[in-house]
Amino acid sequence: MEIFFQQLVNGLTIGSIYALVALGYTMVYGVLKLINFAHGDLVALSAYIGLVTVMQLMGALSPVLLIIATFIITMILTSLGGLILERAAYRPLRKAPRLSAVVSALGASMIIENGIMLIWGPMPRIFPASAVPNANYNIHGVYISLMQVLVLVISFILMVALYLFVNRTKLGTAMRACAIDQDAARLMGIDVNKVIVTTFIIGSALGAVGGLFIGMYYRGIYFNMGWIYGLNAFVAAIIGGIGNIPGAMLGGMLLGIFNAFIAGYVSSSWSLALTYVLLIVIMILRPTGILGERVAEKV
Amino acid sequence: MNKEKLLVVDNLVVAYGSIEAVKGISFVVHKGELVTILGANGAGKTTTMRTISGLIKAKSGSIKYKDKELTGLPAHKIVGLGISQSPEGRRVFGTLTVEENLMLGAYTKTKVNTEILDKIYQLFPRLQERKTQLAGTLSGGEQQMLAIGRALMSEPEMLLLDEPSLGLAPVLVKTIFETIKQIKENGVTVLLVEQNAKAALKLADRGYVLEVGKIVMEGTSQELMSSPKIQEAYLGKKKNT
What we know:
Chain A has a domain at 19-226. Helix content of chain A is 74%, strand content 4%. Chain A contains eleven helices and four strands. Chain A has helices at residues 2-32, 39-57, 63-90, 98-120, 146-168, 170-180, 182-187, 192-218, 225-240, 245-266, 271-285, and strands at residues 125-126, 136-139, 142-145, 220-221. In chain A, the strands form two sheets. Chain A has a two-stranded antiparallel ribbon. In chain A, helix 2 (39-57) packs across helix 8 (192-218) and helix 5 packs antiparallel against helix 8 (192-218). The longest helix of chain A has 31 residues, at 2-32. Chain B has a single domain (5-233), classed as P-loop containing nucleotide triphosphate hydrolases (Rossmann fold). Chain B contains ten helices and ten strands. In chain B, a hairpin with a 2-residue loop joins strand 9 (206-211) and strand 10. In chain B, helix 3 (98-105) runs parallel beside helix 6. The interface between A and B is medium-sized, with 22 and 36 residues.
């Protein structure tokens, strides 16, 4: 039973990270019907930005301030990256066939990935162990680290905030409207470009938090890590129902827990293969993903 | 007649690639008027409406609203000037609630006036009954009411209605047209595009007839209704022999 709860805690932690990254895929897909393949690499970039920030500020700030400053700086710089990505790679192709945008996304992905390699080199880089104090709590034999608590709490707060933003605010409602029908949204007086830019900013900022968590939790970061984390998060978004925001959260959590149980009860070397078995099973049972349900449109 | 010209379309050309859908049309809508544009499928009615709202760019010509040039303005700025549209096919946001749809209609307002919402619920009591329901679950007639109500939320001076009767049962068509009459009586200028020529002419002050991208006839509703050509082609009456 201890293994079960231990893996549940581990699974929720990695699941939160997947969920944060998956939100970026699903939100952009929602408004643009485009898979932003460069999103995973933006997440990798954020881990490097975070590493540089931590190295620069360590010693100058108290541990709490260091973490806060690192998150804020990384989120801002990564959002800026997302903004440039949208302007340079996607906006010029807004009216082009869908495939052109996909190719542009793949190209942007390679540019970011190789850019990271050129700047920081091909060898893995290690987050300093002291970035987050290494404290562990033992609750009835289940270990939970301070880092895990941080991941769970911050992710939860961000997801609730996002949910409220999308469902309760004017701009959030405009975002949902753009996801349904952009021309109709324009007729409401909604500046669709502004909404798309907002989507990229929020998606990138959440991805930046995910990237930082990867760096601080696993510590080792490498230039092409965007591929595998991005892929997992993308699968999570599809499992939950791509385009659906609560779906991305749910999909991320499910995939995280699933992977942790595979690692705990089978072997971690099976986790990627079985992830796809899970994906295929869900796609057979619910082709639109768990929450990706379409309301029948009457004509 | 010395009425204020609200909308002046002059020699408007709109093209999709190399195909011209609207081939140099000119028409005027005066303040307070209800003007209808009649025509068959593919005549260019919806293209004209979409161009006025800024969803499509004009190839040449001008659209002036209160002496302000609209061509070249993005769609979201045109709503703020006082022109809103209920588009063809209603285009309600299906996975949003009825009330969310209505609130989006007032997106350009910094503060939503609850009086307008009340007015729209008065105009369409059905919408109030169903305000928490998802718009996609409404019937076709209710969706049309929602599309019109949503367009009215921005308190437009001019309302563009594109095929409000499309696909509705005759009894609902009557209701919708009665509402349009009421909207006009409230002082809103209306430009109505319709295939249902009979109902549209009954309501309208004046009308234009569009055929393959050109205006082939214009006049007051009386004139158009008594024209043999209109009677035959649009009102389904046979020639008297």
